[in-house]
Amino acid sequence: MNNSLLVVLIASGIAYGTPLLFASLGELLAERSGVLNLGVEGMMLVGAVIGFWTVQRFHAASAASLVAAMVVAALAGAAMAGILAFLVVTLRANQIVSGLALTIFAGAAGLSSYLGNDLNLADQPARHAFQAFLPNSMQNWPVVGPILFGQNALVYFSWLCVIAIAFYLSRTRPGLNLRSVGESPAAADSMGINVTRYRYIHTLIGGAFAGLGGATITLAITPQWVDGITGGAGWIAIALVIFAFWRPELCLVGAYFFGALEALAPQLQARNITLGPTVLWTNALPYLMTIFVLVVVSSGTARRRLGAPSALGVPYVREEY
Amino acid sequence: MAQAPAAIETVGLTKRFPGVVANDRVDFSAVPGEVHALLGENGAGKTTLSHMLTGLYRPDEGEVRLFGERVYFTCPRDAIDAGVCMVHQHFRLVERFTVAENLVLGDRHGAGRYFITRPRAVYGQVRELGEHYRLPVDPQARVWQLSVGEQQRVEILNALYRNARVLFLDEPTAVLTPDEADTLFETLRLMAAEGRTVIFISHKLHEVMAVSDRVTVLRSGRVIGTVKTAEATPQSLTELMVGHELHTVTRTPSSSVREETALEVQDLWVDGDRGVPAVKGASLAVRAAEIVAIAGVAGNGQRELADAVTGLRSPTQGRIRVDGKGLKKGDPRAAFDAGVRYVPEDRLGTGVAPSLSIAWNLALRAYRRMSRGILLPLRRMRTDAEQAIEAYEIKASGPAMAAGNLSGGNLQKLVIAREFSGEMKLLVAASPTRGLDVGAVETVHEHLLEAAAAGAGVLLISEDLDEVLALNDRVVVMYEGELHEVDDRQSVEEIGLRMAGGTPDAPAEPT
């Protein structure tokens, strides 16, 4: 039963969806503050390569080096986001252009490739990787075993993040302030909320989550580093935030759906089922998502209809006249 | 009252913006328990002063004292903490939040100070304050669902919730019907009676006369004087405000109105930006040489009506005829060719291309006639612009000056200069004097009268009742997308009643 296509798809959908979930949670926080971060793909790649490098070079016990790797990857993502925040919050640069530039700068054939090649990370397996750690007896329970208990620590951590962020947004004072900054910075400002600070903090946290997402790929899913390993996951994550109507719990559903899509092709192959050119459309997905994201974010009407934060993409200037 | 210690006081307060001194050594003081009006033309410095006193701007020179103590506000938060709040002209509310969420936002002392927010905790307080101050709103309603008048109540409640000792209101009646304004005045009087200081910013004399105890008049950034309202008359205040006596234009319904119809609109339906009908079955006729004023609170479909008539927006249903000929739907060029001229409400965005020069802006309509092939006649454009600058008295450095750098009045003159070219059958003017100073208002009104005298029909859309009363041959009130003819073209009561959705037989429900 645990080998049935459905169970395997759900279980591996959750695993494959986790990097998407991390990245989209980060994107969601940035967007809720009014900052559209199109640099997610770049930040994920930098997180992926830096996290992998940390595990290779950090000589400690498996758990310690993995935790250290995730922390370093998050910091690297946050550092990248710092560049974006400086450009779009302080200098009030165009958010779409800045984000795209950052992805090009950091992405495949950019900073992340340079780091990976320069640090000789290619073609070697990770020294440690995240694995399922719960007792085998639990993992073997029918249906729920592989789905709920056969996952690695990052999956459980991401669930905690979803709950924490959902609670933060809907129930806490800083969450309310954050939403007001993304909806109406002028109102937030006159109520004494520091718009710049909220945008910086949440863009940085968003970048940290993107870094985590990238490192999840190189340390849990395919424990190795290959140039451009995220394969457009960052773009899917941005699209996910839109599909999820800027709500964390729906990000989780969406991330697992796309994760399952990703897992579908190899599973079908393994079972000798052919469904047309499957590889073609799963491979094309990130590019389709990129187009979708750019169309939606540049159309005011589409954004309003979908319920995007009203001030998304709009720099805030106090003395406007 | 003069002996009471000032609640808020400024000494030599000065604020400079590039090229202008917005406030020049302003000495102002207001005592607890009074409604103090700040009166002045647009651009006189009222808003700048209030922004400095509520922490949005920092003064360049001078000091602010609150109950005798010198204060330095560096951001709105400081002012709020000190009990100085402001109701802005453009509301500072988060539209997607509920009323209660808007109140707890940024609250550090009341129910919103906890890490875990409970907007529910303020429901009772909202109802209590609402009842006491005649500001009823549903605390659970989302702000975007509320009418503009209700949103203003939320703004005032917000200040009361924060225990404001000094409350500034910037042109609060601009968005209200006359009835709503009266209710607001009662609320303000009540707040003053409790010892709070209410500072009421306005350029409308009758409101200042109706609500305030004292008036401080500002002109070009300077305080001209502070007088007790009881000892002032509208005439004396006007003189202080503009520095010279006004000769306002008035229109007597002229026999010159001709029989031909300039504009005929039949059963017109137009969708608004959100895809719901904004104009609902409007019918209207404007005859040649006639000025028909459309009064109404903004947002009742006036913009969509103007857009449809000028071809900027396609009606979903109905017919528009200009000078007896049917107008092609949604084609601005066809409308222009048919003789429709438009002075739009948003003069900087819709009226001109701000970064283009005056000469280019003037040619935006005429270039098709003037050009040779694909080449623009640049020399002619320049001489035409020079002539227009002279004829319309536009204050500009020359034809090459960017339109966006003109002041409001001069910008409007530029739009008028361009639109008055060619054969004009119908002039649509939407809030043509909003935000202009008195001198410019006069000029614009003269141009409108001139257009009518030349035989064009004029459709004047305005929220300004004084303007409507001064210029109209007929008044039509627009309310929720429908047009209602007013019987007595000079009756403020009837126009006001209809603006609030009532009819002379059935008065509007108090909201």
- The name of the CATH architecture of chain A is Orthogonal Bundle
What class do helices, strands and sheet pairing of chain A give?
mainly alpha
Low-confidence stretches of chain B at least 5 residues in length (pLDDT < 50)? none
The two chains with the largest interface, and their residue counts, are: A-B, 22 and 29 residues
Our measurement of the CA-to-CA distance between the termini of chain B, rounded to an integer number of angstroms, reads: 35 Å
Strand content of chain A: under 5%
Main sheet: strands, sense, barrel of chain B: 6 strands, mixed
CATH architecture of the largest domain in chain B: 3-Layer(aba) Sandwich
Count of folded domains of chain B: 2
Principal-axis shape of chain B equals: globular
Q: In this structure, how is the largest beta sheet of chain A organized?
A: none
Can you offer a commentary on this structure?
- The complex is a heterodimer of chains A (321) and B (511).
- By secondary structure, chain A is mostly helical.
- Chain A has a single domain, classed as ABC transporter involved in vitamin B12 uptake, BtuC (Orthogonal Bundle), CATH 1.10.3470.
- Chain A contains 15 helices and no strands.
- In chain A, helix 1 (5-32) crosses helix 12 and helix 12 crosses helix 14 (278-298).
- Chain A is globular.
- The termini of chain A are far apart.
- The model of chain A has no long low-confidence stretch (mean pLDDT 89).
- Chain B is α/β, with parallel strands linked by helices.
- Chain B is 32% helix and 24% strand.
- Chain B contains 17 helices and 20 strands.
- Chain B folds into 2 domains: 8-242, Rossmann fold, CATH 3.40.50; 261-499, Rossmann fold, CATH 3.40.50.
- Chain B has a 6-stranded mixed sheet with strand order 6-7-8-3-9-10, with helices on both faces. In chain B, strands 16-17-18-13-19-20 form a 6-stranded mixed sheet, sandwiched between helices. A 4-stranded antiparallel sheet of chain B has the order 2-1-4-5, with helices on one face.
- The A-B interface holds A 171-177, 179-180, 183-184, 186-193, 310, 318-319 and B 56-57, 75-77, 80-81, 86, 88, 90-97, 101-102, 104-106, 108, 112-117.
